[in-house]
Amino acid sequence: MRRDTEIKLEHPPEVDVLSVHTTTFLPVWLEKTLLVIAGLSLFILALRMLTKGAGAVGPLMIHALHIHGATNTLGFGWLFASIVLSGAPVASVALTFLASHVLTPLETFTMITGSRLGADMIVFFIGFIYFLRGHPKSTSISLGVIAQSVTATTYLPALPFGYWLLTSHVMDHAHVALPKSITGLVQVVFDPIVTFTAAHLNAWLVFLLGLGAVLIAFRILDRALPHLDADQRAFGRVGRLVYRPFAMFALGMIVTLIGMSVSVSISLLVPLSARGIIRRENTVPYILGSNLATLIDKLLPAVLVGHPLAVPIILIEMVTISTISLGIMLFFYRPYERFILGVLDRVIESNRALALFMGLMVGVPLVLILI
């Protein structure tokens, strides 16, 4: 065989694990519009079903797991999000438990905080895939360590501040509501479906159907939103911004708001780091911005569940995380960056240290549940 026709198979083409391409016969704008309508409709239906089932299922679940306080719900939200690899569905469940009077406002607040702590497990999962494909541990799995460290050092310190705001009732009157015409339309369209389902299925099945519908709704909305990947020009030119912490902070917020998923926006850093486009120290402000922006999309389920304290709880999350994150960026960024990278160096220096870190990610929420 001639030399110029030889085929080399040493480096097979990589397939981005975050990208899914499908072929349709509809115009792109029409396909996206239909997906948004379908995703939002399914999400609203899912929340109604969760609320319906939570009244019966919630107390049983809480009793079975011996959850009796804010510490337990912090661990429950953390572990739940780690299992489903996403924090948004867990936050939605917490809000429906609040609406069904299964959880107190404080327990709801800590469960939502826990859901964010557990959501970083997806970054480890994607990083592990890149590690198995031959990328070094320092540029693949390390992103999971950084993401978890940044989230823990912002959301956990925000808990006392949030506790004070909740117990002082300073934000109880903060109110965001849908127009009555939309509320009436939701009741007319979706309540008969929920009522019919609840009449023919037990509460557990209604709750599980609602949970499954939430997961599917987020997948549909993810397809409807602008597709982001590490090969787009905006990320290809990220080198112009990486040395400016506030620029990376803003970029993290923008990407998360566009994609409506902090899991996706942070996971994008894995291929960027693996390909040498971005260095580990440049990811810290990006993750800080992403962790702040993700709270904005929690306002929709808070409005839809209809509990008077649902929106104030999300606003308190936003105020506390904004205060911590902006305080770090304005006054302590360089020492904070050195601390996070110091933790990373200790974790990835050996497989034993990494295994211990992963064990803590699972063990800490279990301990919080059992306390």
Task: Please describe what this structure looks like.
By secondary structure, the protein is an all-alpha fold. It has one domain (29-370). It contains 16 helices and no strands. It has helices at residues 28-64, 70-84, 88-99, 105-119, 121-132, 142-168, 180-200, 203-224, 233-236, 245-259, 262-267, 269-274, 283-293, 299-305, 310-348, 351-370. The relative contact order is 0.16. Mean pLDDT is 82; it is low at 1-22 and 230-234.
List the helices and strands and how they pair.
Blueprint: H1 28-64, H2 70-84, H3 88-99, H4 105-119, H5 121-132, H6 142-168, H7 180-200, H8 203-224, H9 233-236, H10 245-259, H11 262-267, H12 269-274, H13 283-293, H14 299-305, H15 310-348, H16 351-370
Helix pairs in contact: 1-3, 1-7, 1-8, 2-3, 2-4, 2-16, 3-4, 4-6, 4-15, 5-6, 6-13, 6-15, 10-13, 13-15, 14-15
Rounded to an integer in angstroms, the radius of gyration calculated over CA atoms is 22 Å
**Unreliable runs:** 1-22, 230-234
Domain module tally: 1
**What characterizes the major β-sheet?**
none
Helical fraction: over 70%
Roughly what is the average pLDDT, rounded to an integer? 82
Q: Name the beta content range.
A: under 5%
Structural class: mainly alpha
How does the overall form come out from the CA principal axes? globular
Q: What is the element string, with H for helices and E for strands?
A: HHHHHHHHHHHHHHHH
**Given the structure, what is the number of helices?**
16
**Termini separation (Å)?**
70 Å
Number of strands: 0
